[in-house]
Design a protein that fits this description.
It contains three helices and three strands; from the N terminus they run αββααβ. The protein has helices at about 1-10, 40-45, 50-65, and strands spanning about 20-25, 30-35, 70-75.
Length: about 80
């Protein structure tokens, strides 16, 4: 799932080298933290969060085959 999110994010941004996905696994769920360059943050989130919601939908559809829950967190650098 980490590779899927990384592929989707790199396809959307202007600076694909700055895309970083970190996975933290729990008992029943895994958390994927997505970091992108500051100028690409708007491209990942999209208007009214539509792009982020679409990425989460694709992630949940792929995760349903593995019987695990995945949570996508888009981390904003300060």
């Amino acid at each position: 799932m980490k590779d899927l999110v990384q592929y989707l994010a790199r396809s959307l941004v202007n600076n694909p080298e700055a895309v970083e996905v970190k996975e933290t696994q729990g008992d029943t769920a895994s958390v994927l933290e997505l970091r992108v360059a500051k100028e690409d943050l708007g491209r990942i989130i999209g208007k009214q969060g539509r792009t982020a919601k679409s990425i989460r939908t694709i992630l949940n559809a792929a995760a349903s085959r593995t019987n695990r829950k995945f949570v996508l967190e888009i981390v904003e650098e300060k």
